[in-house]
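Worked example

This section walks through a single chain of length 366. The input is the sequence exactly as stored; nothing has been trimmed or padded.
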Amino acid sequence: MKALLVSTSWNKDTKGSTTWQLISDFCEKTLKKKPSELSSIHCTVLDVELSEEHKEDAAWHKVTLIPATRPKWSNPAEDPPAINWLLHHEKYYLALAKLEDITHVVGLSAKTHNAASAIHENLFKNAKLHLLSSKPAALFVANSWDKDALGLTAFHKSLVQDFCGRKAKAGEDLKAYSTVLDVKISDDQKTDAESCGVTLIPAQIEELADPEDELPALKRLVYHSTYYPDLKELENIQYIIGYGPTTGLAAADIRAKLFLGAKLVLINHACPEDNCLQTIKSLQNFEERMLKMASKADLIFSIGPKIHQYFQNAYRAEVNGKYLSDIPHEEILPIPAICQLGKDPQEGETQQHHILTCGQIDTQEA
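Given that input, the structure is written out below as tokens.
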């Protein structure tokens, strides 16, 4: 057995558990072996240069430390050691690719879970992945949360509830987060979201000298590093869910830059024939965006038979050498908005009935 421990540091003297204690506990409780029975143990650290004290302590425990390698183009003042180094291991940890026969990849703390997942996925798929001491989490990339909303916002809320409910029934303790475009979250929003088991993440905006310089609200998710700086602090994100064409590209970018080990789930909620897509100039432009999003996804859902059939045909295409038909694509049926459940329809005076459906509309012409 050979183990790779993904850690940010080698802690020799701390008030909590030392790095060695964590390694020892993992070996004895999970592998049912003493650390000395493993063929080798490697452990990453964010340090570029290892102190002699840490070298000696790790060597005494027969652990090989793997420090970061700063690229030549990296400016120490602008690129200090950070957890992102582990996420982008192909740039900062070239030594990892040289390791052979790794049988266990271990994220020692919640902060390193996403990095451990990425390293496992990219370098050691045949090894077993272990993520210690943190609940798995899902990030829904959405633009709003409203308990009385209709359309996509209502669907988003019902999906979050169903997702969390299914995980709870399966005995999985899962955290859920959802972005919103709002800068301030009302007490009603917060209370309603918490009742559904989700934590809302609002946008953060600095006051500008000229308010006209502020980007439109829908652009905030695209520039998530500026408007949602707290996203990088989320731990053990295993699923990222985006709604195409509304937030799909933003969700793909968040996964690529912050949570490489997470699975990207794309939900199609509109197709070109829908009037609500008046802002999209052409069918070709729309299809290119949707196919680009699909090529990055691990799983795709389409809402209703019409949209599912449309994309089932569209996904016969090949994008960047990837056949989209190889990506699982399922149909999902919407349910009535929660605020409408339990209400009885009113009978009209005539035999003629009218059905009004409501969705997100971008222009008055729609």
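What to look for: The first strand starts at residue 2 and ends at 6.
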